[in-house]
Design goal:
The chain has four domains: about 100 residues, Alpha-Beta Plaits; about 280 residues, DHBP synthase (Alpha-Beta Complex), CATH 3.90.870.50; about 140 residues, 2-Layer Sandwich (Nucleotidyltransferase, domain 5), CATH 3.30.420; about 210 residues, ATPase, nucleotide binding domain (Nucleotidyltransferase, domain 5), CATH 3.30.420. The chain is built from 23 helices and 28 strands. Helix 22 links the parallel strand 27 and strand 28. Helix 15 packs across helix 17. The protein is globular. It starts with a strand and ends with a helix. The model has no long low-confidence stretch (mean pLDDT about 95).
């Protein structure tokens, strides 16, 4: 060994290809006067490095601590290596099947360096709406196939000019191997069109589009993962017109503001929420409305919260800089359809919604809705995991065989496993129409291509009528594993936290098919990846009208009251009964008694609906979970009081809702404030489930509790129950990497399917 010199061989695994990692290594080696080479390999990035020992130590430290913003390092392996006496440090060609093993980076927000150039009049990319570099911009949504290089992306239609090509080839340049690299001379262009596909004659499309928005027009804007429909969020008439045309009755719209200061004019932004808003993923963040809230009420009607985000594409920045406090930026679709991504499709589907179209000629290959998060119970919680986060995998405890998990019916995502990595797709949506079903199929095909995985097992929900289950059944010559819905919820959270063995799983949501043919949703399971036992559940009550009871919570109110009062509702005078009328109430009772289209449900989500209706909050809903959401938001009272409850049986225990429902009805009759009723209801659930976990621990010796299911989107319930359980000595686990709702269920399906095949069941 040369005097004072050492050599190391480093293997870096994770998302380290296509994110500027090799030029970062090149520059880091130059800083410390080290020699060697760096190359992409099938496992990640391989580095041969040699030089003074103290410099090698500093190099390795900075390698992990100062990696590029889009890199995600999972592991760095470092081993001594014989000196090769390199003359310099160089970037070498990829080795083996490196390109085929690349983990693709998500689409992320335009970086500060690019923004500085875009707003510099002396820069050649001044006001260019497609500026990007290795550290920012589109990735996942423009990839057609692997390997990830320009000919496999929608940038293949644009040949780089000499200046852009020189940047692309220079390892010291911020745009080294940035596949979407372009400039006004050689890249995509933006244009403004009328709703009848007529181009607008204008020198600069973006200021002209901003003028239309100021006039109260609805603008369809082509973004990163699809089209948005945009209006001025302060223009009451424009927002109302957008609701009417989009057929979106009450579901909140998201808004986009130019900077954090603008958001703070209408919403309360805590430090953690500010960090989320400014993150490179740029999600929609749910924020409590401030007392100074001044956006149009129709943006988020009857809601304490507003979903806000910051601009994430150069085009958004240019549009927002035209003087807007906030623009509504809602998905470019009709209600329940996938967002439009192709220009022709947008013109066809959005022509009677949008007054004008701000489009461009860079194709989007895969739609990706905006991600939605909130900060609750001390952590970031996903309501929708999509743009900015997909396709970053969840890293599992152990390698699984290649499995495709098809997810649930609502908020569908799919999951594909590759070794110890689980890739959950972007948000697909509710599989209730042909357009979404086709998007589901396309997403599966796309993921199989870019991950180079051919599944050996398909996992699906137990429900025979889900479109995802039917698709699975149609796939020939491949083993299928059917997974119970609530079991999948619990195991998805266990997979996130790399838990093994059995846990107490509280799986609470609106709907899930039980093995007994009833509708589950208020379950306490003793669960592991290998199986589950139903330890306790809410006592079942009928769902009169089945799916109609979800759209009309007053039906569930009648069912719970019928159960609680032995069918005698004559003495009640509740707001929903006056609104609905005695004849309809009697008809629902007849359905219950005769069991006409009234399946039994143990769902906690349905109990929330019923209590919301009894309390006079919401008899009908225009979107899923609306009644439960409004009941949570009503709970402003800080009382510690609660309603009576009890547990029946000795395993599985039953939790009858009757005493809670009677107490709620009594409070309503007394004229109690809804804020007090809701607070007491939440307190009761926290005590009930805490007591239940105590009983299960005493019987089975388990102290780890996993919380999963859409009901735990309720921040008050999640925070209060976690705190209560921890106070009783339990370890509590909840979702942080995938949604607690059905958007995370595919992960659990995949892990359960692997264990099922392993055990030959």
């Amino acid at each position: 060994m040369a005097q004072g010199l050492e050599a190391r061989r480093l293997q870096v695994n994770g998302i380290v290809q296509g994110v500027g990692f090799r030029p970062f290594v090149y520059q880091l080696a130059a800083r410390y006067g080290l020699k060697g080479e760096v190359a992409n390999t099938s496992a990640g990035v391989s580095i041969q490095i040699e030089g003074p020992a103290e410099n090698l130590i500093a190099f390795e430290k900075d390698l992990a601590a100062k990696s590029p913003p889009l890199a995600h390092i999972v592991e760095i392996q470092s081993h001594p290596h014989p000196l090769q006496n390199y003359a310099d440090f160089r970037i070498t060609s990829s080795r083996g099947q490196a390109a085929m093993a690349t983990l693709i980076s998500p689409d992320v927000a335009v970086c500060d360096d690019c923004l500085k150039e875009m707003f510099d009049p002396a820069d050649r990319r001044y006001r260019y709406p497609f500026i990007n570099c290795t550290n920012c911009g589109p990735r996942y949504t423009i990839i057609d196939d692997i390997p990830y290089d320009r000919p496999k992306t929608s940038m293949r239609h644009f040949t780089m000019c000499p200046l852009c090509q020189a940047e692309y080839d220079d390892p010291l340049n911020r745009r080294f191997h940035a596949q979407p690299n372009a400039c006004p001379a050689c890249g995509p262009q933006v244009s403004l069109w009328g709703s009848h596909r007529q181009p607008t004659r204008t020198a600069d499309a973006i200021p002209a589009a901003a003028d239309l928005i100021r006039q109260g027009k609805i603008l369809a804007v082509k973004g990163l993962g699809g089209y948005h429909l945009a209006v001025d969020a302060l223009n009451v008439k424009a927002v109302a017109r957008l609701r009417q045309r989009k057929l979106r009755e009450e579901k909140p719209f998201a808004v986009m503001s130019p900077d954090l200061a603008a958001i703070q004019r209408y919403a309360i932004v805590e430090a953690a929420e500010g960090s989320l808003l400014r993150s490179i993923q740029r999600p929609i963040v749910l924020l409590e409305k401030a007392s100074s809230y001044h956006l149009a009420e129709e943006v988020a009607p009857r809601n304490r919260y507003v979903g806000a985000m910051l601009p994430y594409t150069p085009l958004h920045h240019l549009l927002l800089r035209a003087g807007f406090t906030a623009l509504v930026m809602t998905s470019g679709n009709r209600s329940e359809e996938p967002i439009a991504i192709a220009n022709d499709d947008a013109f066809e589907r959005l022509a009677d919604i949008a007054d004008a179209f701000l489009i461009h000629d860079r194709d989007i290959y895969l739609r990706s809705d905006d991600s939605v998060v909130r900060h609750a119970a001390g952590a970031t919680r996903f309501l929708r995991r999509s743009r900015g986060y997909v396709p970053v995998p969840v890293f599992l405890r152990q390698a699984l065989p290649p499995i495709l998990a098809c997810g649930a019916e609502l908020k569908n995502t799919v999951c594909l496993t590759k070794g110890s990595q689980a890739f959950i797709s972007q948000h697909i949506g509710d599989l209730e129409n042909l357009a979404t079903y086709e998007f589901f199929q396309k997403t599966i095909d796309h993921m199989r291509n870019i991950l180079a995985v051919r599944p050996e097992i398909i996992a699906c929900d137990l429900h025979p009528d889900y479109l995802s289950t039917r698709w699975a059944d149609e796939q020939r010559d491949i083993p299928k594993v059917r997974v119970q819905h609530h079991h999948a919820h619990i195991v998805s959270c266990m997979a996130e936290h790399r838990l093994e063995g059995s846990v107490i799983g509280l799986s609470c949501d609106g709907t899930g098919y039980g093995p007994d043919g009833t509708v589950w949703g208020g379950e306490a399971l003793i669960a592991s990846a290998s199986g589950f036992e139903r330890a306790a559940h809410l006592s079942g009550v009928p769902m009169p009208g089945s799916a109609a009871a979800i759209r009309e919570p007053w039906r569930m109110a009648v069912s719970y009251l019928h159960d609680a009062l032995g069918g005698n509702l004559g003495g009640l005078d509740l707001p929903f009964m006056r609104e609905t009328g005695p004849d309809k109430v009697r008809l629902i009772q007849e359905m219950i008694v005769k069991r006409i289209n009234s399946p039994l449900t143990s769902s906690l989500g349905r109990l929330f609906d019923g209590v919301a209706a009894i309390a006079g909050l919401r008899s009908r809903v225009s979107f899923e979970g609306q009644a439960a959401m409004e009941l949570e938001m009503a709970a402003r009272n800080e009382t510690e009081s609660f309603y009576d409850y009890f547990l029946e049986g000795d395993g599985p225990w039953r939790m009858p809702p009757a005493p809670i429902v009677r107490a709620v009805a009594t409070d309503v009759g007394k004229g109690c404030q809804i804020s007090l009723i809701s607070a007491r209801f939440h307190n009761t659930l926290i005590r009930l489930f805490s007591d239940l976990c105590d009983r299960i621990r005493a019987a089975h010796g388990l102290k780890q509790v996993v919380l999963s299911g859409g009901v735990f989107q309720n921040s008050r319930l999640l925070t209060g129950l976690a705190r209560a359980l921890e106070g009783r000595g339990f370890e509590v686990f909840s979702h942080r990497l995938v949604p607690t709702n059905d958007g995370g269920i595919a992960l659990g399906q995949a892990v359960i399917a692997a264990k099922s095949i392993e055990h030959g069941t």
